[in-house]
Amino acid sequence: MASETVHNDTAPKTIVVKPAALDIGAEIDGVDLSQPLSAQQKTEIWDALVQWKVISFRSQKLNKRSFINFSRQFGALNRGHNIHDVDPEFPEIYGVVKGRQSNRQSGQPTFEPWTGWHTDLTPAVNPPTASILWGKIVPPNAGDTQWTNLVAAYDALSPTMKKIVDGLRGIHTYLNYGGITPTPEYMERIAKNQKVSEHPIVRVHPESKEKVLWVSPKFLLEIVGMTPTESNAILAMLKAHAIRPEFTYRLRWRPGSVVMWDNRSTAHLAPRDLQRDYHDRKLFRTTLVGDLPVGVDGQQSKALEGSPLLAA
Fold it and tell me: Which of 4, 37, 123, 228 could bond 195 through an S-S bridge, CB–CB 3.0 to 4.6 Å?
């Protein structure tokens, strides 16, 4: 596997970046996340994140406190989730545990290729800048997570389609379930914490300046200014396009793995095989407070319902 070192200047190299795919995903060696990072390490890690979209660290020895301390070195942290329960002792953490979906929704979803794919918390007007996931307990041969590079997805569109989508805006909401019937308890939670936002379909990444096909399949409900027939047809095409295999990276979890992804340029898919596996799975997530997405035309996202995500 090819490797490279990312750095901004002529100072000694502090991390090793090993790309895992052509356009997305890299493994970082040479850093202990339980210890404070140097300024140069933070810069190199962030540079690798922006370039590779998803970066992973293996064999890290963490607890909840050290995981929060690591995460905070890259910015303020959101509350773990604005709808679901969090650990009162560590409100910055959201537990991604096996079976957590069982009490939220009922019935089988209408399966489409993009079912389950999402960018974190896009119903909020300021979705997280990045998400960080620590695998404490992982199955030996199930529970892989996949990500897709939404910059590569935009680049692969035809010039004609780019002109069309550059000017579009979409509505993101928690009420887009694609055939799943939420339980009454979950609907009550949403009613108390609902967020609906209008985002550009193509956002400009604030650091790389790349254009991002910012399609969050689970949460993107409709395109502004189109009839339902027009909106549904274009969204079906864009959602299918965004998750084409050549844009994706699949990670096999190991105990002690930490994965950090750029929430401004990716969508991801939680594993569907866990309920057929008898092993436990327990991961913990933090998210970095984000800013307002900006479209190709310079227009920011706007909230239609609910308040912005705040620091914990």
Answer: 123
CA distance 236 to 238: 6
List, for residues 237-287, the tens digit of each pLDDT value. 999 999 999 999 999 999 999 999 999 999 999 877 667 666 777 899 999
Q: How do residues 28-77 score in pLDDT, each as one tens digit? A: 999 999 999 999 999 999 999 999 999 999 999 999 999 999 999 999 99
| Residues 6+ positions from 42 with CB-CB distance below 8 Å | 73, 74
DSSP characters for 86-97?
--TT-TT-EEEE
Token pair recorded at residue 309: 């995500």
**CA nearest 49: which of 84, 30, 74?**
74
Rounded to whole angstroms, the Cα distance separating 56 from 33 reads 11
CB 239 within 8 A of CB 114: yes
For the sheet containing 220-223, what is the strand order?
Answer: 220-223, 169-173, 196-200, 302-305
Domains observed in the chain = 16-305 (3.60.130.10)
